[in-house]
């Protein structure tokens, strides 16, 4: 039986920018080995697998080419986008996803998608041994430890944009990834970031919604703002609008369908 599969560029309004994700629309749950094989075949930072429930909600899981992950923003945004675009949901309906990180939702608001995700605070810690060296840094402003990653604030946007990490050395730290961020020097942006996740099989993720679940509370405290605009300065690049609401983060962005097809295996 063929499976509908799509490739969506998330956190962008133009094809070939933002972060690409594959989305598989399944009639029934498939085994983990099959899903992992599909994700490896697609070779994107994440492939999403979604199954409709009788109550109108969906079960959603995400896999990198190497492992299953507990939280993924761009593939959730891509999933919501295709559910509305392919008329599985009306745009007046909220998309509800049951995931390993609990219930996540998506709403269509003024031509963009807004995700409701958990905030991931980043308590400050001493820099772990060799972390700065692995990033190619001599110093930093601060290091935090959100749930899945390290968060490293550096002095300038230029430092963020010019980083060339040692990915093998980062992988040895045993976390999903490392977020590097600074206050933005660019008009219209509040902060910039990059996200390196060799521990999850992705050297650099283009635009990472889950990283912004940590970036939002971190920069909200520093800038004393609840609503901000972040830019992930990967080669593809992407803009994420963030809004901190209690212990939740609203992640806003657009998405574009670039591939529609069928998975034959």
What is the share of helical residues?
10-25%
Number of domains: 2
Distance between the termini: 8 Å
At CATH's second level, what is the architecture of the largest domain? Roll
> How confident is the prediction overall: mean pLDDT?
96
Tell me, what is the CATH class of the largest domain? Answer: Alpha Beta
Q: How many helices?
A: 6
Fourth-level CATH superfamily of the largest domain: Diaminopimelate Epimerase, Chain A, domain 1
Could you walk me through the main structural features you see in this protein, from its secondary elements to its overall organization?
The protein is an alpha+beta fold and 265 residues long. It has 2 domains: 3-114 and 253-263, Roll (Diaminopimelate Epimerase, Chain A, domain 1); 124-246, Diaminopimelate Epimerase, Chain A, domain 1 (Roll). The chain is 21% helix and 41% strand. The chain is built from 6 helices and 18 strands. The radius of gyration is 18 Å and the shape is globular.
List key phrases describing it:
6 helices, alpha+beta, Diaminopimelate Epimerase, Chain A, domain 1, 18 strands, 265 residues, 18-stranded mixed beta sheet
Question: Which helices and strands, and how do they pair?
Answer:
Elements: E1 3-10, E2 19-26, H1 32-42, E3 46-52, E4 58-63, E5 68-69, H2 73-85, E6 95-99, E7 102-109, E8 112-118, E9 124-125, H3 131-135, E10 142-144, E11 149-153, H4 157-162, H5 167-171, E12 177-183, E13 191-197, E14 202-205, H6 209-223, E15 227-232, E16 238-245, E17 248-253, E18 255-263
Parallel strand pairs: 2-3, 4-6, 11-12, 13-15
Antiparallel strand pairs: 1-2, 1-18, 3-4, 4-5, 6-7, 7-8, 8-17, 9-10, 10-11, 12-13, 13-14, 15-16, 16-17
């Amino acid at each position: 039986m063929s499976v509908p599969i799509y490739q969506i560029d998330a956190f962008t309004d133009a094809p070939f920018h933002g972060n690409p994700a594959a989305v598989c629309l399944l009639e029934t749950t498939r085994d983990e080995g099959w899903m992992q094989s599909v994700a490896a075949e697609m070779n994107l930072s994440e492939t999403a697998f979604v199954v409709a429930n009788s109550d109108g909600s969906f079960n959603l899981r995400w896999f990198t080419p190497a492992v299953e992950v507990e939280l993924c923003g761009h593939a959730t945004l891509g999933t919501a986008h295709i559910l509305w675009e392919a008329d599985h949901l009306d745009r007046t309906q909220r998309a509800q996803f049951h995931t390993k990180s609990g219930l996540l939702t998506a709403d269509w608001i003024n031509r963009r998608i807004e995700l409701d995700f958990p905030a991931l605070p980043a308590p400050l810690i001493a820099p772990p041994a060799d972390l700065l060296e692995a990033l190619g840094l001599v110093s930093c402003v601060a290091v935090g430890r959100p749930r899945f990653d390290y968060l490293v604030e550096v002095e300038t946007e230029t430092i963020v944009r010019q980083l060339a990490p040692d990915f093998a050395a980062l992988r040895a730290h045993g976390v999903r990834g490392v977020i590097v961020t600074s206050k933005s020097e660019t008009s219209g942006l509040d902060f910039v970031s990059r996200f390196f996740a060799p521990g999850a099989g992705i050297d650099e993720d283009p635009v990472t919604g889950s990283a912004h679940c940590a970036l939002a509370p971190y920069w909200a405290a520093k800038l004393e703002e609840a609503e901000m605009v972040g830019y992930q300065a990967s080669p593809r690049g992407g803009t994420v609008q963030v809004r901190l609401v209690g212990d939740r983060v609203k992640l806003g962005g657009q998405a574009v369908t670039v591939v529609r097809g069928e998975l034959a295996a």
